[in-house]
Each structure stands twice: as structure tokens, then as C-alpha cells.
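Late entry, evening session. Most of the bench is empty. Finally got around to the prediction I had been postponing all week. Sequence below, unchanged from the version circulated by S.P.
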Amino acid sequence: MHLLVILMKKGNIRRNLFKIHSWLGLVAGIFLILLGLSGSILVFRTELDKFANQELLHVSPSGNVKPNEALAHCYQSITARYPNLDVIAWLNPDAGPDDAYNFRIYFNDKQLLTYDLALISFNPYTGAVLREGPASQFTPSLIEWLFQFHFSFQLGIPGAALTAIFGIIMLLSIITGVIVYQKMIWKVLTFQVSVKWKNWRTISSDLHRIIGVWSLVFNAVIFFTGFWMNLFAFQPKTWQNELVATKPNTLLSVSPDQMYSKALQAQPDMDPTYVYLPTQPVRKFEVRGYEKGQWKLWGALNSVKIDQQTGQIYQVNRLADKAFGERIEATFHPLHVGNFGGLIIKIFYAIIGLTPGLMAITGFLLWWRRSSRSSV
């Protein structure tokens, strides 16, 4: 703020804002390219993972594990392999009869520069492990590695904080860009500006303005929601917990299959998206999902929590009962990942998600042109 005041006192406010706009883009440029490209790929995260591993994750409905014990068998196998876990998340409770069960594991290696997630997939009919490994490696899934890279650059909690910082930098870049190019906004929106294909200078200049205007709102939403979802990385407690070893697992006293069935009975109109299987006494068994027919933009606010030691329902949450502020905040994740619509929305997100990188490239070319002129 002090820097901004000094720059404005020097004369031409717009010129100084342009300098700020340019430097913000230069500082965050390479990261914007990486975030935009990875984000566009992750829009089709589930589809790409299934396509890349279609033979591995396709199972036959035959084996020695009973259908009403499949979840318990997976839980027992995971906790035996990993004796100190924060929690286990069943990622695809909507799995079909031919689909493997995918689980995300939250562990702690007491290192700040690693974000402690792992992926493990099971054949629910035989109990066989189909793939396994930390999200910091390509072994279990390239998509899972990319997911962790997108929100933390594979640099743990500091990386998650860095991603949030770049979100703020991009928001400031957007604001300064709106002020600097305010006269061009209406012209672009009314198609009075077109790309002049005369040379790379005119191409980069026109593309920067046109892409910037048409992606303005989208990028503001994407970078704000990304910043908001990574706010946890600025909490001192988050950093402290990363350096403290997780306590040994406290296993469920009630079958997870029974609790899952009970949760669905408590909310029969819920389509489950995540199931959290606790390994620590402070957590509860939880099923989260959407209400049938609900617009997914409102997020998976429906949930049922069950005490894993008694099997009694602890809490039932419904979208309709949530406060307005909670409902607005719940839209941030769907707005960020684009999972609230069909194929058209996803394609739109994948294409527009590339615009931060294009803005960084064209912005750099404009800066380089001006720097070359000034040095002559």
C-alpha cells in the first residue's frame, strides 16, 4: 500500500498502475502458466484417471469378500499398512459394480515440504490392492500427482501458501489491468477490437487485451476461490501439526459398511460423494454428498456423522438448513473446479483455464518489447 501511494505521487497514476500490473504479471508468470495448465487438465480429473487406468481399475464381480464387508476389508487393510493416519477418505462411493474402490490416505511424515497424501485402490470383491503410493510420486496416478501439484506445487504447506499468494497477485493484476485498460473493455465486448496479424508485437498486444477482457470475471472467480480454499496454509496450527507425529490409529468399533448403510437410511435423498473413515478418536465417520436433484453449484453440504465407537448417529446436516453464508462459501469449490454442470461446462473451464498462461506469455512479450525499446 505504501509503495502504491509513492508511485501515485510521482505523476501519472495510470502509468504507475501499468508498471504494477506488468511486474505482478512478471513475478507470477511462470506459476500462472503451470497453475492454468494443470487446472485445465484437472477439470477432467476423474475421466482421465479412469481412461489412463481403465484395465487396472476395471474389476469383475467375483471373489471371496462379501458385498456387505468390502468397505471394512479395505479399511482393515489400509490401517494395517499405515499404523499412524489422520483419516481415510473413500473417493468414489458412487462406484459401479465394475469399478475399483479408490481411497485417499492422509498421513504425516513430519516434513513441511511434503503434503502428506497417498492413493490406494482395491478390488472390492477380492480385497487385492490394485495401486498404491504417495501423491508426490507418479506411481499410483499421474492425475493424483498433478492434483497435489496444482494446490501446493509439491512443496507441502509452504507450497499451498505460495499458491494462495499467487492467487492474490493475480487478483491484484486483474484489478490494475481493469483500471489501465478500462477504455478498451467496452470496445472488446462490442467486438470493436480485433487481432491485427501484422507481426508478433501487434498479435501479443491485441491478444492480451481481448483474452484479458473476456476471461476477466472467470479468472477473478478462479483465483479468489483458489486463494480461499488454501487459507488453511496461513494458520500457525496447520504448520505446527505438520511437525508433530500422528498418534497410532484408533480403529472403528462398528463396521464401516453398517455405518454407511445407516447414514444412507438417515438421508435417503443423498447421493454420496465422499466417505470419511476415521482413524483418530477426535473424528467421526462421515458420509457427504448432494441432495438428489440438487444443483451441484451449492456443494456437497448434506452429510451424516456417526460415532464410530457406538454406531449412533451424531449429526445430520442438510443443505436447506445451512446459513446463507455457509451456502455461499460452499459454492467456492464447485466454482473453482467446474463440476457443477455437464460436459459443456467442463470444456469451457478447460479452455478458459488456459487463459492465465496466455496472459502471462503475451504480457511478457509486451514487457520485453518495451524493455528492448528503452535499452536502444
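Two things to note before I forget:
The radius of gyration is 24 Å.
The chain has 15 helices and eight strands.
Will write this up properly tomorrow.
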